[in-house]
C-alpha cells in the first residue's frame, strides 16, 4: 500500500502525447508515493482528491472550492512557471504551499523572445511570403524603410529571470536597454547593463517593448489603450509572458490604427485564438502558439522537477520553489527544514 497519494487531473497536461509519469516517479517511488488520475471536472476531482496528500496541478483550474475541500493536502505542485491556474490565496489561507518551476526553461524563453524581436524587426514573415509569392523584388525596398538595429532601445516590463536572460542576448546587438520593475532593486537592474525606468519612460522611449509580467490578478490587463498610445509609431511589442497581462482589444486597435508598428506574440488572451481574432489576418503581427518554453528537454526536466518538489514536501522538507513561502513558517509546518538549492533529484 502506498504511503502517499498524489492526485492529478486526467488527460490535462503539457506532456508529450502517450508519455506517463516515469520521470516524476523517479523521486516519488523511493518515498512510497503514487500518482492517481482523477476526472478533470471540479465535483469528481474533489471526490477523488479530498484525502490526498498532494495535488499535481495541470490543465484544469484548482479553485478555492477544490482547495477548501482538501482535508490532508500538504502541497500543490505545478509543472509550469505560471501559477494562474491555482487559487494561491486560497491555498495560503489553508497553509498549503504552492510550488512551480520558475527556473527550468529560462534559456528557451529568452531565446524565443530574442527570435520574436529579430523576426518582427526584420519582418521575417512578410519577407518569406514575398519570396514564396514571386514578389522577390519587393523584399529589399521594404527593409530600406527600417533603421539599423544597433543603437535602438529595448524596454522591459518586469525584469525577472527571463528578461535578464534576454538582456544578456540583446547586449551584443548594440541595443540600449531599460526596464520597469517596481519589485526589483534598481541596483540589480543596473548590474545587468540596463537602465532602471518608470513604465511611462519604457513605453515612450523604447523601440521594442518586451512584456514579461506574470499572470496574476493585480497585473490583469496591465497594458491598455493609454499605454499603447504612449509608444512610438515605429515600436514593436513583444510578449512571451502571459496574454492576460495585455488588453488584447486595445493591442489590436493600436496595430490597426498605427499607434505601434508590429506585435510579436507567443501568448494571447484567449488560447487558442478564435478563428475570427483579427490578429490572425494582420501582416504586422507575428504569432507563435505559446511554445517559448518548448525544447527537447521540456518533458523530462519539467516532470523530474515536479516529482522532486512533491518528494521534498511529502518527506517533510521545504520545496525549492514556493510561490507562497509564508506558509512554510506557519505553526503547522514547523517540522519542516530547508533543503539546499544545489541538491538535485538524484542526489
UniProtKB/TrEMBL annotation:
Keywords, ordered alphabetically: NAD, Oxidoreductase
GO-annotated biological processes: L-serine biosynthetic process
Domain D-isomer specific 2-hydroxyacid dehydrogenase NAD-binding stretches: 114-292
Keyword Transferase recorded: no
Domain of life: Bacteria
Record GO cellular component, one term: cytosol
Family: Belongs to the D-isomer specific 2-hydroxyacid dehydrogenase family.
Protein name from the UniProt record: D-3-phosphoglycerate dehydrogenase
Organism field: Bradyrhizobium lablabi
Source taxonomy: Bacteria, Pseudomonadati, Pseudomonadota, Alphaproteobacteria, Hyphomicrobiales
Amino acid at each position: 500500500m502506498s504511503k502517499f497519494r498524489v492526485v492529478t487531473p486526467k488527460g490535462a497536461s503539457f506532456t508529450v502525447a502517450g508519455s506517463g509519469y516515469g520521470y516524476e516517479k523517479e523521486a516519488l517511488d523511493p518515498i512510497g508515493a503514487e500518482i492517481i488520475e482523477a476526472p478533470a471536472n471540479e465535483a469528481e476531482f474533489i471526490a477523488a482528491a479530498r484525502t490526498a496528500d498532494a495535488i499535481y496541478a495541470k490543465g484544469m483550474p484548482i479553485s478555492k472550492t477544490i482547495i477548501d475541500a482538501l482535508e490532508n493536502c500538504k502541497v500543490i505542485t505545478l509543472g509550469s512557471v505560471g501559477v494562474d491556474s491555482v487559487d494561491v490565496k486560497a491555498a495560503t489561507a489553508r497553509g498549503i504551499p504552492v510550488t512551480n518551476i520558475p527556473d527550468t526553461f529560462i534559456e528557451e524563453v529568452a531565446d524565443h523572445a530574442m527570435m520574436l524581436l529579430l523576426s518582427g524587426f526584420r519582418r521575417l514573415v512578410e519577407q518569406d511570403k514575398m519570396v514564396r509569392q514571386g514578389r522577390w523584388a519587393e523584399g529589399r525596398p521594404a527593409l530600406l524603410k527600417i533603421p539599423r538595429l544597433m543603437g535602438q532601445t529595448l524596454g522591459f516590463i518586469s525584469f525577472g529571470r527571463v528578461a535578464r536572460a534576454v538582456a544578456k542576448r540583446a547586449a551584443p546587438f548594440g541595443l540600449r536597454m531599460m526596464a520597469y520593475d517596481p519589485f526589483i532593486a534598481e541596483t540589480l537592474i543596473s548590474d545587468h547593463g540596463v537602465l532602471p525606468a518608470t513604465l511611462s519612460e519604457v513605453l515612450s522611449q523604447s523601440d521594442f517593448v518586451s512584456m514579461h509580467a506574470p499572470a496574476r490578478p493585480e497585473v490583469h490587463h496591465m497594458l491598455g489603450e493609454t499605454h499603447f498610445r504612449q509608444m512610438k509609431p515605429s515600436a514593436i511589442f513583444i510578449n512571451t509572458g502571459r496574454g492576460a497581462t495585455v488588453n488584447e482589444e486595445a493591442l489590436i486597435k493600436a496595430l490597426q490604427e498605427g499607434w505601434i508598428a508590429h506585435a510579436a506574440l507567443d501568448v494571447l488572451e484567449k488560447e487558442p485564438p478564435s478563428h475570427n481574432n483579427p490578429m490572425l489576418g494582420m501582416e504586422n503581427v507575428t504569432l507563435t502558439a505559446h511554445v517559448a518554453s518548448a525544447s527537447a528537454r521540456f518533458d523530462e526536466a519539467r516532470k523530474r522537477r515536479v516529482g522532486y518538489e512533491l518528494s521534498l514536501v511529502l518527506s517533510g522538507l521545504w520545496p525549492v520553489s514556493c510561490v507562497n513561502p509564508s506558509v512554510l513558517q506557519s505553526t503547522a509546518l514547523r517540522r519542516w527544514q530547508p533543503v539546499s538549492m544545489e541538491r538535485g533529484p538524484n542526489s
